[in-house]
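[agent] plan:
  1. take the single chain provided in the ticket
  2. run structure prediction with default settings
  3. attach structure tokens to the ticket
  4. add a short note for the reviewer (M.T.)
[agent] executing step 1
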Amino acid sequence: MKNETLRSYRVFLIDVDGVLVRGGEVVPGAVEGLAKLQKMGRVLLLTNNSTRSREQVALNLRRSGFSLRAEEIVSSAFIAGAYLSEHYGSVRVWPLGEEGLDLELASAGHKLVSPQEAEWVVAGMDRDLNYDKLAKALLALSSGGRLLATNEDRTFPTADGPRPGAGATVGALTGMGYPPTIVVGKPSKIAFEIALETADCEREEALMIGDRMETDILGAREAAIDSAIVLTGVTRSEEMIVASAAPRFVADSILDLAEGRFTETN
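[agent] step 2 finished; step 3 output follows
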């Protein structure tokens, strides 16, 4: 009976870190859980990670045993490129991030330029962030460029504990007096709208599956999309669930969810 409830959804929007992988390791049962959901409907991975291109994300997950294509990845880097194209056409950008951000912006038809030429600075997580990069970003922004943030996640989980996320990059720019003009990753509605456009589905046909209350679940709620939280990532117990943004489903893992072992909160 519970599986029939899940089958009422046509598309599953699934976070990566904390749901499928955690600290670089596959979450136990996640490969099987994802495969079961793929048999029920269409799967799109909706991730705030901007460090890899969609092809790189898909390849990395395939090496871990998941069956995924680049077209099934909706990353914050992809969302950034799509948002700029949709609202401004092809623009001149200076990326402050890693290779995946550069690749997705170029793939979307944007021109990567020097800081002085940039109409937009697109900032994401950068594990090689340094003073020189911040100085170049300041030059771009003080020359008239606008700031788009892929997301503002403060941290991301690793096997050795939390590490600085894109929020650290964006926070440094905000600290210099340049807060982002727009933030496109979760929990922004923009992320969910572009995911729905990519899936070609209505919001009532989609279920967001994630591990973070403040991004996955709150964002889905604001976008009027049902959600499920799994307790394999940032949220580790039902006591951590915020009542005002409660998901529809709670499960110990994505495999438990796919096999009908979940509770409904409403």
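[agent] step 4 note for reviewer: The mean pLDDT is 94.
[agent] ticket updated
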